[in-house]
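Quick check before the chapter quiz. The format below is the same one you will see on the exam, so make sure you can read both the input and the output lines.
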Amino acid sequence: MPTDDMTLLREFAATRSETAFAQIVARHLNLVHAAALRRTGDAPMAEEVAQAVFLILARKAGSLGPKTILTGWLYRTTQYAAADALKQQRRRQQREHQAYMETTFNPPETAAAWQQIAPVLEAAMDGLGERDRHAVLLRYFEQRTLAEVGAALGMSEDGARLRVNRALDKLRAKLGKAGVTLGAALIVSAVTTNSVQAAPVGLAAKVSVIAAKGAATTTSITTLVKGTLKIMAWTKAKMAIGAAAGLILATSVSVVVVEKESLVQGKTESEWIKSIVYNGDEQQRELWHSLGPKGIKMLLHAMKPPSAGLAEEETNTNRQTRMKAANLLGSLENIYNDAASAVPDVIKLLQSEKDGRVRGLEVGYFELPIQSMSEKNKAALLPELIRSTQSMDASEQNNALVSLQYYTNQQETVVPLIVNAMQDSSPLVRMMAVKALNKIDPQNPASSNSVSVLAGCVTAPPGNTPSAANEAIVALGEFHRKPEVAVPALIKALGSDQFWARANAAAALGKFGGQARAAIPALQKALDDSDASVRKQAVAALKRINSEATAK
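Here is the expected output.
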């Protein structure tokens, strides 16, 4: 098993082992160099930035904490170093940058998408919060599995999937603000294919030597290292100043609340709530995060259902307010773990909330907290989850199933509900029910129907839940059971309009090996697919299927 990054870094810090440092460089140089190249648009400058980044790493090797995610640290340091290099040399060669990023292996749609994304990708990545940036880097830049992403971020695979999906949504929103309006699947394909390019031959050896010895080879690199360290120091200082300012504001708030009722940082609670934008950006979340417990309290107030007797317009307005507040509360919990203390309050709100759209968001809030909630709170939440499984709102049902799978000591109550949901009209609900049943009670007789249910999700009209088909395709590959049912569904998926579904279908068929011989003609046709990822998966699937067929 490969030695992890921080173990290698500690070995280097203790012994100055060039071998240990060279392993780190080999793992991460392509990512650093590619990011530097996108930021500078100049190949020679990108090489200098890459050397500076690893020289800084060598100098700071002994001071990085054990929980440091080195991929994220290197990416952030590349940002600082590239910014300083551009400041020193005052030049951007965007045309050269784009030409370098062009690759003949890209299919037309992915190549065209990358042409739009590349010039603004770094700015969009800079706008993400640290944990979201780490999620995107690990999943799409380094193409790690969700299990590996979860291990790096200190969460379960399901938690990593949630984090990655939300981080992708945020990245897509930021790209949209820069004028890049592409679907999530196309963004993923373009970034996965192009974001990490091979660094120039010989650069790894050069970086390893100068970083391990602690000396730069040129004056420009020495200057760049000094400038970057200044930027990093200033950034750290600004964070400290911000934290101190937060304490001052928190103290000031307590005084203002006494002297001027309900004022928080100069605004009333009503003004704060009216300012919320549904699915708002990182700036909104950071602002509310800075409010601390006072912000959570305001959101909970806003989520309180109104008394009866409101006019229709007032009812709609109040519903929108509750939805915005519930959505933001869930974001604060999932990103900052700010709202764990609100668990009992949200349970009470659910007990009085009747609107399915609001309840769906409130139930969704528990997706991460449920994994560590006390038995007392879980017991109080269970009746509301049971109620949500009977909802007409698919999102509410789906979110309830996500939490029900963690009631392992209540199987007699929970499992029948999950089994029943496997027959729901919504593919998204059926998909989640299969996953929940296989987590909480994999030996249940109803699990034998899982493959048929998944196959039905794959072949059903996508409607408003196209993600259900993609998830079902992946799950069929993970299960690799009942090939007589699964393989025909996956063959059909190879003809999907979504290239991501086609790539997943080819990968899933490969996992069936020789049992998927019927798929050979369709996979051979996929070798001419317009998307590189589909072609790649088709090649791998055919190789495995043919090798197992020959062995037999």
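If your answer matched, good. The chain is about 70% helix and 0% strand.
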